[in-house]
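DM from R.C. (forwarded with permission)

"hey, sorry to bug you on a friday — could you get me a structure for this? deadline for the figure draft is monday and I only need the backbone to look sensible"
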Amino acid sequence: MGIFDRFKKKEETTPAPPAERRPFGPGVAEIATLISTGDEAVSADISACTSDPAAWFQAHEDRYMERGVTSADDLELVQWLGLVDILEEHGWVCERDWKDELEDFSYFVQNLHGFQQLGLELDPDWLDEDEDIPTWCGILTEKWSAQGVRMAAIDIDSDSYVLFPVSSARFAGLQKLAEGIGQHIDYVERE
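My reply, with the result:
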């Protein structure tokens, strides 16, 4: 090592580029389309929500207030919660409290459009009323294995579950889209 070696410029290492993040609004719209199988009413509402989230917040402020969101400062949160509300309003997801009763869980899941489209069955006798939503969804996964369908949930950072049935083929795309915008969708029994 020579006397001037310590003055040599150290080799710079280039940090790995951050994971490519997709634009939030279009990502939300793609998720809505996949969950609702292209429902035009859902698409129209999602378009309104994602094209002007501040106006959407103002028009639906009561829904956001119920969730403790008091301003439209976080436009991505406004869109993500708007997605859930829109899908629920149109019958594609149901939001259930973590301590839901079996009778209510069964009723709301069976009335989802996706449940009906996929030709699923839910016999309440399969499920133990003393168990919880992840356990019930695990049992449904076993019962629906021939159809390749499981219950998934949209994460909204709360103690409730935003539930919908999804085919395994469609789930991978949904999960990737959610991750691409910094959000999370997963199978319920994994939560």
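R.C.: lifesaver. The longest strand covers residues 160-167.
me: no worries. Residues 3-19 have pLDDT under 50 and may be disordered.
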